[in-house]
Amino acid sequence: MVNIKVLGSGCSKCEVTANLIEKAAQVKGVQISLEKITDMAAILSYGVMSTPGVVIDGKVVHTGSVPSSAAVDLWLSAPTECCGCCGGKG
Description:
Blueprint: E1 2-7, H1 12-28, E2 32-37, H2 40-45, E3 53-56, E4 59-63, H3 69-77
């Protein structure tokens, strides 16, 4: 399961971002846990100054705009943990 957080005030761009991620996960058959974070202190704790922001498994991967469909597909295709086959470099 991929843990995803959409950071933002709940504006239309934040909603579009969350919906884009949900739809892409459904199409790809990826199980996600999607949380919308609207608390400004929590958003700032990630170092995000421009929303919407996207955090995947604790790592900020995008800020400041609605991500492209290609970017979302890439996030959902990437392995969530390194298996060690590359010496931890992958």
